[in-house]
Amino acid sequence: MGRSPCCDKVGLKKGPWTPEEDQMLLAYIEEHGHGSWRALPSKAGLQRCGKSCRLRWTNYLRPDIKRGKFSLQEEQTIIQLHALLGNRWSAIATHLQKRTDNEIKNYWNTHLKKRLTKMGIDPVTHKPKNDALLTTQAGSNYSSSKSAANLSHMAQWESARLEAEARLVRQSKLRSHSLLAATSAAAAQLATRSSSAAATSIKSWSASSSINVHVDLESPTSTLSTTALPGNPISSSSHDHHEDDRSPSIPHMFEFIKDISHHHRHDHDDESDDWTVCQLAADHHSAINDHHNHIAVASGGTISCCSSMEAGEWTLNNKESSNGGGDDDVAEEGFISLLLCDSTAAAGGDHQEHGSSSEVNNNSEISGGGNEKNSNKDSSENNSGSTMTTTNEQHEYCEDKNYWNSILNLVDTSSPSPHGDDTDTPMF
DNA sequence: AAGCTCGGCAACCGCAATATG
DNA sequence: TCATATTGCGGTTGCCGAGCT
């Protein structure tokens, strides 16, 4: 049968820890390690439950915890990651070394959230709060499309991201089990399974973000189909799109990330990885804007986007990279790092392998910025005339980019660096 | 000086996922 | 396979100190 009953909570102390208790816990863990938290309190002579001990250790006593004021860099990272991950504090904490999820959560709730709110930014969606107002008041096509774009951009972003994450995870698993994963049959099977995983993820995400997304799990072509429900302008579908679905939001997000990277690592000699990712991102957006595009993320952080006139079918450009198999955490870590253009963290990801013909990025266009990149790709690969759309997108894209710039700039100005060494770092 | 309000943070609670017998 | 323990996580609470009236 199951395990022995859990510790009863009768007679166990609650509330703030005393220095003596801290000392007892520390001494015990230093000597024996924590092992089983359930058994620890009695062994250590503490009148606490194991859960309380674990919490105290992980959030306070652990020696590798950095305490004190958050640096500007840390604030930036938290905001970035929160925009990407939402309230997944533990995931955010993994990217902020020596900070606990609890600390980050508290800091967000007490500082950053309020700051964004003050600035008129919804801290949940990271979008201007007056979007809805604009929609209802203006009523013009442009305003509608802009607000729809703003509404949909996070949805599209999340959908694409989750799909990519799921694909990375699946492929990592697959590769760890077989060296023959590169066969087309395996790739097709992988695409099938990852679509389901992504669909589940998207369902989960849409539930948490109060956005209704219908996921068609029955597609015989392994198509991830997310269709906006009536009244919801959001659609991340690779098919079944409507006019309103076109959104410049993805590039603005990626441009945002690109700028973060450019700023954060401006002293790096080789920024090609950053640009590669951002170029990929821009292409990714182009692919999404095209109603019939394929997006594939191969293992090791290699992202491939390929365009097709065929109705939304997800394909996988299965590129074996040199870093071998990895576990799910590594895959996710790599992808998040990829999103953050953090080549240091993503060093194992070989995402510089981007020159294959199946991929659409082209570093020679870097200096042109995201707009040019998008339109270049659109014009070269999407022959379904999108000139007008592209022009509008560029306009809205610039506004969206300004939005992200303004967020971080305002955060910057409203939060003077405790170190006073960030004056040369315009956030974006 | 006393009372009140508010912000920050440590800790608790409850749920979900995972591990184990 | 199932039941239960354990662990991890995110939301929430409540204490405490600082600032204000």
UniProtKB/TrEMBL annotation:
It comes from Linum trigynum. It is found in: Nucleus. This is Uncharacterized protein. It comes from the Eukaryota. Keywords: DNA-binding, Nucleus, Repeat, Transcription, Transcription regulation. Residues 222-249, 346-396, 409-428 are annotated as: Disordered. CDD domains: SANT. InterPro entries: Homeodomain-like_sf (IPR009057), Myb_dom (IPR017930), Myb_TF_plants (IPR015495), SANT/Myb (IPR001005).
